[in-house]
Amino acid sequence: MVTAKRVFPFVLLMLIAFALRGTSQTPDPQTHPMDMQMGMMSITRAVAVLNPASGSQVHGTVTFEKVSDGIKVTADVQGLAPGQHGIHVHQFGDCSSMDATSAGDHFNPSHMSHGAPTDKSRHEGDMGNLTAGSDGHAHLEWTDPMMSFMGPQSIIGHSVIIHANADDMKTQPSGNAGPRIACGVIGIAK
After folding, report:
1. Is 137 annotated as catalytic?
2. What are phi and psi of 65, to 5 degrees?
3. Which entry of 32, 85, 90, 158 is annotated as an active-site residue?
4. 154 pairs with which residues across the strands?
5. In whole angstroms, what is the distance from residue 143 CA to residue 69 CA?
6. Which residues have a Cβ under 8 Å from the Cβ of 76 and sit 6 or more positions away?
7. Does 23 have pLDDT greater than 50?
8. H helices of 24-150, where?
9. Bridge partners, 11 (sequence order)
10. N or C: which end of the chain has fewer CB within 10 A?
């Protein structure tokens, strides 16, 4: 025989479940999978630790910090030949191949042409060039208005590639920057 004492908890749980169902939000179809995975947390910093590729000795770090007018990029790279070297965000966070081709092409979710970092029409991953001194060290610091930590333009989980040559900022699709000599996956930082 069913008693009120047995039915009441069941009915109460059903009412709570029904009430909660009405308040749940369905994900926005434009939400990036990484945003959903991170629970829509606010990301303010990211970092890529660069490791050698293609037999080079190039290594360093690239940090990304959210600022009011975009993402501030700071790169410190050692082991470079003196001169300019292309630097780009690439589509995959995969640096597993010896030549870093596993990182794919330039990160370009808006399907734009390759260009300079100051061009209005460019890949989201186009960061221009680093200039190494005679000691092989290069430092780059600038703010990118197109980069993001959220949505389809999010750089989180993609990779940074340093190239052997300068990016000419016009040759399609990648600026004719030559072999990939360092690679690092962009991850969330404290």
Report:
1. no
2. -135, 130
3. 90
4. 148
5. 7
6. 60, 61, 62, 137, 138, 139
7. no
8. 33-37
9. none
10. N
10 Å Cβ neighbour count for 14?
10
**What does the CA dihedral 19, 20, 22, 24 come to, rounded to 10 degrees?**
170
3-state secondary structure of 147: coil
- 180 given a catalytic annotation: yes
Listed in sequence order, the DSSP H helices in 24-119 are: 33-37
- The answer to whether the beta carbons of residues 67 and 190 sit under 8 Å apart is no
How many helices and strands (H and E) does the chain possess?
2, 8
| Catalytic-residue membership of 85 | no
Name the helix (H) or strand (E) containing 7. Answer: helix 4-23
- Closest alpha carbon to 160 in 87, 96, 100: 87
Q: Write out the H or E segment, with its range, that includes residue 58.
A: none
32, 85, 88, 122: the catalytic one is 88
Q: Is 106 annotated as catalytic?
A: yes
The model's pLDDT over 171-188, given as tens digits with 9 standing for 90+, comes to: 777 768 889 999 999 999
Segment 62-100, tens digit of pLDDT: 999 999 988 999 999 999 999 999 998 999 999 999 999
Greater confidence (95 vs 146) lies with 95
Is 126 one of the annotated active-site residues of the chain? yes
3-state class percentages of the chain: helix first, strand second, coil last, to nearest 5:
15, 35, 50
Whether 59 is catalytic? no
What is the rounded distance in angstroms from the CA atom of residue 105 to the CA atom of residue 185?
A: 14
